[in-house]
């Protein structure tokens, strides 16, 4: 019990009380033993408080009950209790956190407030923070098993969680293994695209009406006229013939 975890005072006092009850120790003996069981700053502060006198020259801590109340006021202050309670009621399951691990985390937070949370409150806080895909199934399970305790609810949530994850894996696998006849990247080009890109006389061209015939026609060399009226035609190699 220290300033790092002041709510450890609940666990300490509960354990100390059970040990005193089992040993048959009276309240007068318990006050002396309480100071010996403390350690660190808590031991020093408690010893100073026991030796301090208050009004009318009376000691501030005279009985075992006074010692317990002093420890609770010092370490379990209202602001610390409110913060711990808020952490419990706002706890949520992480995206990749299993329900069993999430349940253990909620249980640890409730154990810090030992005696302030009922078992039903711990179960309700756990179910509230579950993922939506699992919460509906767990709520339906609670309707059929109204007397289910916290471990049973955690086990049911874990089973539903594993089932949902397996369904997602199967869906991804089926989508990945599905093949189609024609994929977007392997679609054959249209005949018009072949006619536009292929050179004239390409064997892949087919006569498809006037447009294809014009695309496959051999070009006519340009002609000119001599001064005396004869036709002058350019050969393909660039020479002249008359």
- Number of strand elements: 3
Strand content range: under 5%
Element order: H for helix, E for strand: HHHHHHHHHHHEEE
Describe the largest sheet: 3 strands, antiparallel
Through-space gap between termini: 117 Å
User: Measured on Cα atoms, how large is the radius of gyration?
Assistant: 44 Å
The percent range for helix content is 55-70%
Shape: elongated
Q: Determine the structural class based on helices, strands and strand pairing.
A: mainly alpha
Helix segment tally: 11
Average pLDDT number: 77
In which order are the strands of the major sheet placed? 1-2-3
* Poorly predicted runs of 5 or more residues: 212-216, 231-241
Show the helix and strand layout.
Blueprint: H1 8-23, H2 27-37, H3 40-51, H4 64-75, H5 78-89, H6 99-112, H7 119-128, H8 132-144, H9 150-177, H10 191-197, H11 210-216, E1 223-225, E2 231-234, E3 240-241
Antiparallel strand pairs: 1-2, 2-3
């Amino acid at each position: 019990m220290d300033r790092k975890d002041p709510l450890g005072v609940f666990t300490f006092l509960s354990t100390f009380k059970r040990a005193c009850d089992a040993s048959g120790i009276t309240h007068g003996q318990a006050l002396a033993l309480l100071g010996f069981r403390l350690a660190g700053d808590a031991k020093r502060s408690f010893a100073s408080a026991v030796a301090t006198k208050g009004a009318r020259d009376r000691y501030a801590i005279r009985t075992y009950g006074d010692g317990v109340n002093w420890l609770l006021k010092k370490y379990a202050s209202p602001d610390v209790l409110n913060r711990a309670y808020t952490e419990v009621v706002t706890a949520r399951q992480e995206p990749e956190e299993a329900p069993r691990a999430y349940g253990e985390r909620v249980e640890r937070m409730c154990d810090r407030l030992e005696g302030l949370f009922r078992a039903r409150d711990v179960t309700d806080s756990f179910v509230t923070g579950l993922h939506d895909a699992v919460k509906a199934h767990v709520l339906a399970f609670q309707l059929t098993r109204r007397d289910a305790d916290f471990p049973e609810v955690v086990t049911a949530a874990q089973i539903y969680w594993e089932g949902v994850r397996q369904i997602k894996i199967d869906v991804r696998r089926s989508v990945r293994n599905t093949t189609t006849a024609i994929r977007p990247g392997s679609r054959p080009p249209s005949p018009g695209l072949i006619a536009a890109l292929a050179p004239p006389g390409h064997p892949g061209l087919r006569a498809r009406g006037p447009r294809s015939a014009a695309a496959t026609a051999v070009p006519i060399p340009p002609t000119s006229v001599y001064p005396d009226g004869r036709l002058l035609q350019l050969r393909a190699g660039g020479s002249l013939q008359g």
